[in-house]
Design brief:
heterodimer, A: mainly alpha, elongated, B: alpha/beta, Rossmann fold, six-stranded mixed beta sheet, 11 helices, 41% helix, 23% strand, globular, Permease_MalE (chain A), membrane (chain A)
């Protein structure tokens, strides 16, 4: 365990020495950001809209006390979405999608000697292949989390009003009630940390794949599992330290 | 010229290379010959810097490569072109971009037009001028090897390494690839090192041959000398091929291939 963590740190360090030109890395980062971001919009949209809707319906179902105003539903949807559901669930979804893609891609490059080809050319393969993926994730995860927040609250709005659980005015009133802007900052900090964890862990697993196609699959699976565990641990640590 | 001196390499307790010393001369096709598991690919990976020898040194035209400063190693690496066993073309790039890639990365001062000219020249040189827009997945094995060669020579490499360039190819395509490597070596005066266990390659293009057996160099010489080599392990390796055995018998005793093919195989 300690040895693996040490190797992981050395792997991260290797990205930052013998770096390629800034222009090359920047262009690669933009390419990766587009791949990670655009390809993930649909799944993030679907998941977050339904999570918002389900959250709203379930809170409405449990909120049977007539002394508690209906606007509380909107308030709770907002708080749960911004603080937890949007950043954490979105990152877990992305760990499955982006993480497996990064690990699978790098694993395939490793077993087909494409990474060796880069090294023989005198190119720092971890700097050229991994750093842009991590930076691309760090750029796109927060944007996707913001999208998830918006769609989740919209999903809650639609579910609440269409099901007749509350009026639109009550929902909006709850959404606007005692809003704390820091919660948005906290959610974005979480998304950046999760982006780093998912991309770095997945890249590490893919980069050091040994064997053939079977091992590439195993690397992807391990990458997703480890990324999700890291997200949950990171979630607790951040909540404990920043809230 | 590449000089290998007393190179040892082990993986765990298993020694793979046991003190290999040899020289690969400039402007020649230097073949490293040997059976499977004799350490040929490990030696190649040590030479190009993908593996670090436990003991020993590797020198490129007088400059020590092993254990030298990173900057010097990088400079040498920029002069290296390599054709991998499975070609190792970048899946996400088409043929043109694959060949252009080392130019973009290693020669940033080169203009786009100069790069395009160079890529077109290299693709033409390997007979693939019309395949620039194809993706690697659309190419045959032989075409992939050609693109690999074009990519290797694009930045005007001084040293060309080929890891089993004939693996997975039919005999006719193998000969064409061998001829291409041979022509390029002599045309550009490159130091070429080819890892192979193909006796056809030895006969076709082996200017200088190093025979490895169980991690040690047992013999080196030219293609004209190899058939008369008196090393038992090398003789066994060479004449395990029915074709070579037959050729040798025809040379010594006369007769035809068809007559020999009818006979049960016997030891030389």
């Amino acid at each position: 365990m300690v040895k693996v963590f040490g190797q992981f740190l050395l792997f991260l360090q290797s990205m930052l020495v013998r770096t390629e030109r800034v222009k090359v890395i920047w262009n690669r980062t933009l390419d990766e950001a587009v791949l990670i971001g655009i390809d993930s919009i649909l799944i993030v949209s679907i998941v977050s809209a339904f999570i918002g809707a389900v959250t709203c319906v379930q809170i409405a179902y449990n909120l049977i006390n007539p002394l508690i105003p209906k606007s509380t539903i909107g308030y709770m949807v907002r708080e749960m979405t911004i603080l937890e559901l949007a950043p954490t669930i979105t990152s877990i979804v992305l760990a499955g999608k982006v993480g497996s893609s990064i690990a699978g891609g790098l694993g395939t490059m490793r077993i087909t000697e494409q990474i060796d080809a880069l090294e023989v050319m005198g190119i720092n393969s971890s700097n050229y292949l991994v750093l842009p993926r991590i930076l691309g994730s760090i750029i796109t995860f927060p944007l996707l989390v913001i999208l998830a927040m918006v769609l989740s609250i919209l999903g809650g709005y639609l579910a609440g009003t269409l099901s007749g659980a509350m009026t639109a005015q009550e929902y909006v009133e709850g959404i606007r009630d005692t809003f704390i802007p820091y919660n948005i900052v906290f959610a974005l900090i979480k998304s950046v940390v999760f982006a780093f964890l998912v991309s770095a862990i997945s890249a590490y697993r893919g980069y050091f794949t040994v064997g053939g196609a079977l091992e590439v699959g195993a690397s992807s699976t391990t990458a997703v599992t480890h990324s999700i565990i890291a997200i949950l641990i990171g979630d607790f640590v951040l909540a404990y330290t920043l809230l | 010229m590449i000089e290998i001196h007393n190179v040892h390499k082990s993986f765990g307790d298993a020694p793979i290379l046991k003190g290999v010393t040899c020289t690969f001369e400039t402007g020649k096709c230097n073949l490293v010959l040997g059976g499977s598991g004799t350490g040929k690919s490990v030696l190649l990976k040590c030479i190009v810097g993908l593996l670090k020898p436990d003991i020993g040194s590797i020198t490129f035209d007088g400059t020590i490569f092993t254990n030298n400063k990173v900057e010097i190693r990088q400079e040498i690496r920029k002069q290296i072109g390599m054709l991998f066993q499975a070609s190792a073309l970048f899946d996400s790039m088409n043929v043109f971009e694959n060949v252009e890639f080392p130019l973009k990365m290693l020669t940033p001062d080169m203009s786009r037009a100069e790069r395009r000219d160079r890529v077109e020249f290299c693709l033409k040189r390997v007979g693939l001028e019309a395949a620039g827009n194809k993706m690697p997945s659309e190419l045959s094995g032989g075409m992939k090897k050609r693109v690999g060669i074009a990519r290797a020579i694009a930045p005007n490499c001084t040293y060309l390494f080929c890891d089993e360039p004939n693996s997975g190819l039919d005999p006719l395509t193998s000969i064409k690839i061998d001829e291409l490597i041979y022509e390029i070596t002599h045309e550009y005066n490159i130091t070429t090192v080819i890892i192979t266990h193909d006796m056809n390659s030895v006969v076709e293009i082996g200017d200088h041959i190093v025979y490895l057996h169980k991690g040690q160099k047992l013999w080196d010489g030219t293609k004209d000398e190899i058939l008369n080599a008196q090393v038992p392990e090398l003789k066994e390796f060479i004449f395990s091929s029915s074709l070579v055995r037959a050729a040798k018998r025809i040379e010594m005793e006369g007769g035809s291939l068809e007559e020999i093919r009818q006979e049960p195989s016997k030891d030389i």
